[in-house]
Hints:
- With 493 residues, the chain is mainly alpha-helical.
- The chain has 17 helices and seven strands.
Amino acid sequence: xxxxxxxxxxxxxxxxxxxxxxxxxxxxxxxxxxxxxxxxxxxxxxxxxxxxxxxxxxxxxxxxxxxxxxxxxxxxxxxxxxxxxxxxxxxxxxxxxxxxxxxxxxxxxxxxxxxxxxxxxxxxxxxxxxxxxxxxxxxxxxxxxxxxxxxxxxxxxxxxxxxxxxxxxxxxxxxxxxxxxxxxxxxxxxxxxxxxxxxxxxxxxxxxxxxxxxxxxxxxxxxxxxxxxxxxxxxxxxxxxxxxxxxxxxxxxxxxxxxxxxxxxxxxxxxxxxxxxxxxxxxxxxxxxxxxxxxxxxxxxxxxxxxxxxxxxxxxxxxxxxxxxxxxxxxxxxxxxxxxxxxxxxxxxxxxxxxxxxxxxxxxxxxxxxxxxxxxxxxxxxxxxxxxxxxxxxxxxxxxxxxxxxxxxxxxxxxxxxxxxxxxxxxxxxxxxxxxxxxxxxxxxxxxxxxxxxxxxxxxxxxxxxxxxxxxxxxxxxxxxxxxxxxxxxxxx
Length: 493
C-alpha cells in the first residue's frame, strides 16, 4: 500500500514537473502579442478619433495642425512619447506595417487582426497623402516645434506649445523623407489593391509623384531643416538609401522597369549591418532579393548577394558577424532604443527565410551553412526575449504578461487621462507632478514596446530614461509582421 502511495505521489510530481516545464519552456502567446502590438498604434493617433477607438483614455488632439500654414495636417501618428509628428519615422512605420501585411497577412497569419492592421496602415497613409498633396511642389514633413514640445510634459489633448509646420521643396530638398514617403504610399497601395482599388490607385499615383520629386531635387532634409529635425531624426545615412528604398517599392508595386535605374546595385553598394528608420539599404536588398529567389529573375542576383552579406553580419555563429549580443542573447546595436533594431532586423530574418523556403535556397557565411531555420530560430529568440524570455523575466511590451514596464516615457500614458481629469495640466505641472513621480503610469499604453534593456540585460523602468523606457511606432511596426508569422506558426503558445 505504501509502495502504491509513493508511486502515486511520484506520478503527481512528474505531472506537475512536466506541466511547469511546458509553462516555462512553451512559446509566448503570440496571438495576444500580435493583437496588442497593433492596438498600440491607436494610442499614438493624432487628430479626431473614430467612434471605434479602443484605447479609450485617449481623446481628440492636434485638431488645428497645419493651420499655421493654411493647410490641413490633422491626423497621423505621434512618433513616440512626445507630441510631435515627424514625417520620416511615421513614413517608415507605415512602410513596415504594410510590408508585414504583404508578407504575413495571408491565411491564418494575422488571425482576425487583418482589418485592424490595415486600419493602422490607413491612419498613417491618409496623413502622408495630405502631407504630399496639400501644396504643389511641397512635402510637409513635420508638425510641432520639437524643442518647445520636449520642454513640456503635457498630454496631446492639452498641447499649447507652438505647432509650426515644416516642409521640403525644390529649394529646400529632402530626398530622404520624400523617398521614404514614396515607399510608404507604394507599400500601402499594395495592401489596399484588392480591398479598396480607388484608394490604392490614389496612393500609387502620389507615390510616383513624390519619388519623382525626391529624385529631381536631391539633398538631405536635415540639411534643409536643421534643428527642426536634428538631433531627433537627422538623416545620418544620407538620402541615397531612401531613393533606393523608394524605387524598390515602386518597382514592386508597378513592375515598371524605369525604376530599375535607381536600384542599380553598383551604385547602392554600401556595406551595412543595421536596418532602421534612417538606414534602408538592408531592407531594400531583402525586398529585391525576392525577385531572384522566388521569381527567378537573374537580374536581381547582386541583391541576393548583398542581402546575404548583411545577414552574415547579423548571425552570431557567422565568422563575419559584426553584431554584439547581450549575455541573455539579445541583439545589441546601439544604446538608445535598441529594440528598434531588434524588431526591424528580426523582420528581415523572417522575411528572407520565407523567400528561402519558397525557393529551396540555402547559403553560407564562409564555412557555416545557413538555412531558413537558422534565420527563423534567431528571429524567434529575439521576439521571445522581448516578450519576457530574458534574464529579468520581463516583457518589454506594455500589457503583455504580468511583468512589464510600469513607468514608460510617454506623456499621454503618464498623465491622467483627459476624461478622468478634464481640467488643463500645464507644461511645468506635468513635470513636477507626474514626470518625476515614482508611481506607475495611470494609463496603460497596451502593446507599446519600449527601447529595452542595456547591453548587460539590465532595465531600470525609469520614466526619465527615454533611451530605454520610451516606446515608438518604428519599434512596433516591424514587430507586427514577425508576430503574425509566429502567431500563424505557434498560435497561443
